[in-house]
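Hi Y.,

Following your request, here is the sequence exactly as I used it, all 136 residues.
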Amino acid sequence: MKDLHHNLTFIEVVAPFDTDASTPVVGTIIDTIGYEGLEFVLTIGNLYDADATFTVLVEEGSVANLSDATAVADADLLGTEAAVSFQFNDDNKIRKIGYVGGKRYVRLTITPANNSVAAYLGVIGVLGYPENLPVA
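Below is the corresponding structure, written out as tokens. Let me know if you'd prefer a different format.
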């Protein structure tokens, strides 16, 4: 078995929470410096609203606060935003989307629509292929 433990860094992008709103959930900005791989892992709990949809957007930029944010080109994603987006009947699932672009800063946003009852969500960023080993 190989050592994965010292090769990955985990970042809480969206802390596990429940929302009953249709307000965008903007994740933590991830600084990719020192790493060559980034994966977002979405944990979807119970979704109680019978017509809610949740659209995922991945953005990138060169400025730390992402004031220059632009949507990531499809060619710079592993998987698609459409495939990782979800709806009311996707209870208790895990989805992932990878980033292989060249910008330093990246974030993920989830935008709910028609959501007025509790929806349980969380997102973790996984940085891999570090330039220096081991990682903390």
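The two ends are 20 Å apart (CA to CA).

Thanks again,
Q.
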